[in-house]
Amino acid sequence: MTILAVTGHMDLTDASVPLVRAALDELMREAAVDGELVGVSCIAAGSDSLFAEAVLDADGSLVAVIPSRDYRETKVKAAHAAQFDRLLAAAAEVVVMDHATAGREAYEAANSELLRRADRLVAVWNGMPPGTKGGGTADVVEEARALGLPVTVVWPAGAARRNG
Predict the structure, then answer these.
(1) Axis crossing angle, helix 16-32 with helix 47-57, rounded to the nearest 10
(2) DSSP run (H or E) holding 24
(3) Phi then psi for 71, rounded to 5 degrees?
(4) In 3D, which of 99, 102, 90, 105 has the Cα closest to residue 39?
(5) How far apart are CA 78 and CA 147, in angstroms?
(6) DSSP assigned state of 39
(7) Helix ranges (DSSP H) in 58-159
(8) Exposed/middle/buried for 31, CB within 10 Å: 0-12, 13-18, 19+?
(9) H/E element, 66
(10) CA dihedral defined by 33, 91, 42, 110, rounded to 10 degrees?
(11) 89-133 pLDDT, tens per residue?
C-alpha cells in the first residue's frame, strides 16, 4: 500500500490547474502500480483538492483531514464549497482535528497529522522558502524533510501562483 499526503499552493492560476492536475494524474498512476493507493489531504481549494480528485480518479482511497470543527463554515469559500463537499463525501475516512476554530494551530495540527500518516509527501510547490505566517506549503515540506519523509515536488513547467 502506498500512502501519499499532499501540501500545496491554494492560489494556482487558472492556466496552471490543468498542468498540475496532469502531473498529479501521472504521479497517481505510478503510485497505484504498487497496489492500493491512499491519499491524505485537507481538501483545501487548489492543490489539495486537485490531489484528492487525482487519488479518487486512480481508484485510490481518500483520507480527509479537516483542521477544525468550524472549518467548513468559516473557511471554505462559496466557490470551493461544492467541490469540498463532494470530496468530503467521497472520502473513505474523515479526521477532524480537535480544534474548535480554524487558525494557525489547527492548520499545523492538520499538517502534522498528514505527515504522520504518510509514506511520502507530494508538494505542489514553487520551491520558494517559507513565509512568516507558518503552516504554509514550504513549512510542511521542511517538516517532512526533518522527519526523514520523502518529498516529491510537483511544479510543472508553466505553473504559477496568482499572487506571485
Answers:
(1) 40
(2) helix 16-32
(3) -55, -50
(4) 90
(5) 36
(6) E
(7) 71-75, 78-90, 104-117, 137-146
(8) buried
(9) strand 61-66
(10) -100
(11) 999 999 999 999 999 999 999 999 999 999 999 999 999 988 777
